[in-house]
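User
Class, as today's exercise, I want you to study this protein, comparing sequence with structure tokens, and judge whether sequence predicts the tokens.
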Amino acid sequence: MNSKDYGYERLLMSEDTSSIILRTLSEMNIIKPICSLIRSKAGISVYRVESEERKLILKTFDNKEDTREIENYLLLSKLGIPTLLLLDYTDDAILLPDIEVSTEYRLGTKNDLNDTRVACAIAKWYRKLHSEGTRYLTENKTPMYDESDAITVSNMEFVAMKTATKDNSLWKTVADNYNVIRSLIDVLPRTLTYNDFYYTNLIVAKDYSSAFMFDYNMLGKGIAYGDVRNVTSSLSPEAATVFKNEYNTEGLEAEAFADAFISPLVTLYHACQLRELPLWAKGAYDELKNGDIEKYLHEWLNAEG
């Protein structure tokens, strides 16, 4: 079918990309769309689509591994966890409502990181995610993305090389104790984890009655405390306290011991995939250089007996 036959209008992008987007929208029965590119990075592109007085968001995935977000939307919906409504999808794209025209919700802002009302609402969403996630993973053994899988001997050797820290005693400690470390990681309790908190991935009800995260490309399985740390480290002290109280972090102490060691190593591994160490990895790099990661490892191993 020719695009003119279907009534498509202008697309603000390259001709090759336009053809792909037109074909995708055709599969979704979207009539006479006007599309514009919002952003494109690492093979994931987001477009604003207007069609028949509807305003929509189309997200496309060039890489097969990134299409896991489609399954993640379907899974969260199945579990009753609040998400953006998945209007339609193909093998490599999803269609979502445009929150900017919603009368009920708005996109998150940097100020939300200081707002105790938002912190309380976010905590409720994470608590439900982790509660339903624990039940789901207990009943289903489906392979999922797990951040701790990055901790292997070869990956740590790669990090040592990229950070020019081969002489750091941490790497010998990890290599000498790797089987024990790996076995302890593998028996940690798993739940569904979001792994990517920041206000740019946040949606808030305009009356502050609820909030939830979107953009599920990094969603996977992991320890609940990893998400708690990820959220509270971005919030103001007052908002972080409200989050912890609403979520109820009692009982996560053992996970916190493990996370203190696991989290910076995972951060460094992903940072080392880039040409230069990014700003978001500076804290982990400093912990490597000053010996904190090795200290956390010894504390964790000692706590586990």
